[in-house]
Write a structure and sequence with these properties.
Largest sheet: 3 strands, antiparallel
Distance between the termini: 31 Å
Helix content: 10-25%
Order of helices and strands: EHEEH
Strand content: 25-35%
Shape: elongated
Radius of gyration: 12 Å
Structural class: alpha+beta
Number of helices: 2
């Protein structure tokens, strides 16, 4: 099976009780199937590399939101 890797940056909203959301999210995402690499770059920034044949960015974001993370969806980050 071919692996099609994508790399994305996910940013978190600063208005959240967990001031280390990126680190907390990296611990969770590292256990998901299809995630090849995940690294918190800053307190509110996460870098993720994933196989799109297994998992999508939309699904990754949905999982994070369902677990209570607040993503930064401002236009400046898109």
């Amino acid at each position: 099976m071919n692996v099609l890797l994508k790399q994305r940056e996910i940013r978190f909203c600063r208005l959240h009780p967990d001031t280390a959301q990126a680190h907390s999210a990296s611990l969770i995402l590292s256990d998901l199937e299809g995630i090849h690499h995940v690294q918190s770059m800053e307190t509110y920034q996460l870098f993720v590399s994933y196989d799109v044949s297994v998992i999508t960015l939309n699904l990754i974001e949905e999982v994070l939101v369902e677990l209570g993370f607040h993503l930064d969806n401002s236009l400046m980050n898109k």
